[in-house]
Amino acid sequence: MCGRYTSTRAPEDLTQIFQVTDWNPAETLAPSWNVAPTDEVYAVLDRPARDDGEECRRELRALRWGLVPSWAKDPKVGSRMINARVETVHEKPAYRRAFAKRRCLLPADGFYEWDPVKDEATGKTRKQPYFIHPADGQVMAMAGLYEYWRNPDITSDDDPDAWLTTCTIITTEATDEAGRVHPRMPLALTPDHYDTWLDPQHHDTDDLRALLTRPADGRLNARPVSMAVNNVRNNGAHLLDAAT
Fold it and tell me: Where along the sequence do coiled-coil regions lie (predicted)?
C-alpha cells in the first residue's frame, strides 16, 4: 500500500534526471510534502513517435493519481485504484492493458506508511506515520501505469476536458526498514531499467515483469515523523519533522 508520498523536486530537475524531451510549463505543480490520492502528480512517460523515423518523445506530465480504466462508467472509481499489486498487475482487467502499453515512472522523494502504536498512558492505539526514503537522498522512480478515460458527456474530442489521464503506483513486498512498518511498499526502478520500462513498443509481459524485482536491501531509511501528516490538508516541510 502507498497512500501518501512526497514530491518536491522542481520540474527542471526532473527533466534532467529522467532525460525528458517534452515538458509543458503550464503543467507545473507546486512542491508537495503530502501527496494524496486524486492529487495531480508528475509522471514520466514515453509517447510513440508521430511519424516513421522519429524517436519516442519522453514527456513529463501532470496526471491524476488513481487510475480510471478506459471502460469505467464513473471516474470516481480511480480513488480506489491508487495501487496495483506487482503479483497480479499484468492480469487484472483494470490494469493489464495499461501494463502492456502505458507504463510510467512517478518521481518521489519518499513515501509515508503508518504503524499502529499503543499509548501506554491512555491505552489507546494511534497510527504513527513514518517517512521512508532512499538512504542516499536520490529520487525514487516509482513504477506506475497510466490510462486515458473519455468523458461521454463532452461531444468534442478536441475539448481538453473530454479526456482524463490518470495513474497508479505498482507495489511489492516491503524490504529494508520499510518492512518493519508495513508489509507493502512502492516498487522503484533503477536507472538502467528506465528505458525498457517506458518503451511503448515493448509488450513482452515476461520481460517487463522481470524488471519489477524487489529492491536490494539497505537502500531505504524509515523514521517517525510529525502526526500532522495524518491530515491531508496539511502540507509543508514541517511534516518531516521528527516525531515528538
Answer: none
